[in-house]
Design a protein that fits this description.
With 237 residues, the protein is mainly alpha-helical. Helix content is 71%, strand content 0%. The protein has 11 helices and no strands. α1 (28-41) packs across α11 and α10 (187-206) packs antiparallel against α11 (208-231).
Length: 237
């Protein structure tokens, strides 16, 4: 059946971008470009939504028990929100989406926090021993060097696990395994992404409060872009 020549024109509405398949690589320039775009194109939106999220986070921390039962679930929602903001479909409710998958969100995020803490223990041992009287600064130096190595070459390769949990619905173990294996070929880029994140954060701190907030969002969006480049589009709602 042919189109009606008298039908009124239809406007093309903006919607979520079509998500491509992952390439398994990280283009750092693309990360910077996309993070910059997403930060400033959505500035009023994420600022207002972030204030609501931050108030909920503070309430959870002040309630003491909420540190364990609320804060991890809010962090889950933070990952969902940033992913969807990058994809062009974020809503304020995404920040609190972890409560609709409470058990999965709570166990997954607490497990990830525990793993991140455990891998830092080899650095904490010389740091604590060196700082205790009598102070041994050479041990402190070894501790900081060890911590730097862990951040650059271990933590950087596990940073995609939370995205895989919220985006693909994977359990903690499978998410950690895939994050580690899929970054084997991009270890250097992942390490440089950590360095870039710290540079951006420090620059934001030097600009006082005005710069800290957008710098923090930008730093997280660097990882969102890298995640989409490696793993591609969403597979789970």
């Amino acid at each position: 059946m042919s189109e009606n020549p008298y039908a009124p024109p239809q406007a093309v509405l903006a919607g979520p971008q079509l998500l491509a398949e992952g390439t398994g690589t990280i283009d750092l320039r693309r990360c910077m470009r996309e993070a910059w775009r997403d930060t400033w194109a959505n500035f009023p939106f994420w600022l207002g939504a972030g204030i609501a999220w931050l108030l909920a986070l503070v309430a959870g921390v002040l309630s003491i028990l909420g540190i364990l039962l609320v804060v991890p679930v809010l962090y889950w929602g933070g990952y969902v929100f940033l992913l969807k903001m990058h994809d062009g479909s974020a809503r304020v409710s995404d920040l609190f989406s972890g409560f609709s998958r409470y058990g999965q969100a709570l166990v997954g995020m607490i497990g990830y926090f525990i793993v991140s803490t455990l891998i830092g223990i080899p650095a904490q041992i010389p740091l604590q021993l060196g700082a205790a009287p009598p102070q041994r600064w050479w041990l402190v130096g070894i501790g900081y060097l060890t911590l730097l190595a862990i951040l650059l070459f271990v933590q950087s390769r596990l940073n995609f696990a939370p995205f895989l949990m919220v985006d693909r619905g994977l359990g903690l173990g499978e998410a950690l395994s895939q994050s580690w294996s899929r970054t084997a070929a991009v270890k250097g880029q992942a390490a440089l992404l950590v360095v870039l994140m710290f540079v951006v954060t420090i620059a934001g701190m030097l600009a006082l409060l005005v710069g800290v907030i957008p710098a923090t969002v930008y730093a997280f969006l660097l990882w969102v872009s890298a995640y989409r480049q490696i793993f591609g589009g969403a597979r789970a709602s």
